[in-house]
Amino acid sequence: MNTIKEFLSWIRTSPSLMMNDHRISPYFPSVDMDSNVAVHSDYDGNPRLGFLYQELCRRQFEASHEYQVIVEELQLQQNNRTIGAIDFILDNLATEQIEHWEVAIKFYLLKDDYWYGPNAKDRLDKKLHRMLEHQLMMTRTEAFQALYPNIDDISQHLLMQGRLYVNPFEKPEVPEYCLGLKINPQRVTGFWCYQSQFEKVTEPLYQLPKPLWATGCNNENKVPVTELPKHFIHCQSETGQFWFIVPDDWPQSSM
C-alpha cells in the first residue's frame, strides 16, 4: 500500500524527461481526485514496471473530477494486423477537449553521447521518435477513425517520466538536446558505473526491486550489495543517490 501511495505521489510531482515541444506534458496533469475511489488499492497485475505505471496513471484519471476516460489501451487493427496501441483517450470535462495521452516511465544511461536503457536495445532518441511520430499519430489512422468517427479534434500529449544517469568516474559532457528537444536537467540525477568501477562507490548500495525504481528504498530489510550478478542492477545509496551497476561490456552485451 505504501509503495502505491509513494508511486502515485511521484507520478504527480515528477517533471518530464523532455521539454520544449507542445506535445510534451511537463507534468502529470493536476487533478482533484474523488476520495471514494480506491486509487491506493494494491496492484496484482503484470509485474513489469511500465504496466504498473500505466495502471496508476489510469487510476488518477478515473478518479479525477476533470477527466473522463473514454478508452484505455486501445489496440488498433488494420489489414488484419496490429498497427499500434493507444494508452488513453480522455474527455477533458473542463475544456470539452478530447485528449490523446501516451505515458511512459523510462531510465536512461549516458554513454558516448547516447542515452541507453539498461537494456541497451532501448535508446532515448529511438523512443522519442517512436512516441512522437508513431504512437501519437494513432488517432489519425483509418483504424481509429473507423472506431470513433465522431471524434475529429484530438489534442496530443506525451508524458515521459523517469530519470537520467551519468557515470561520475568518466565525467562526460551531458547533452542538452535529444532529437532537437531539450533534455530536462532536473532529471539528470542518477549515477551509473561499470562493475569494475563498483569499488569506487564510497557508500553502501541497496538493490531496488522494480516497483521502487522511481521512488527509491523504503527502510525495510535493506541488505548492502556485496556481490555483483552478471546482469545490471539498480540500486540506491545510503544517502539516497540512485545507481545502475552494469557489466563491463555494456552496452554491447545487451544490444
From TrEMBL:
InterPro entries hit by this protein: DUF1853
Superkingdom of this protein's organism: Bacteria
Protein name per Swiss-Prot or TrEMBL: DUF1853 family protein
UniProt organism field: Vibrio barjaei
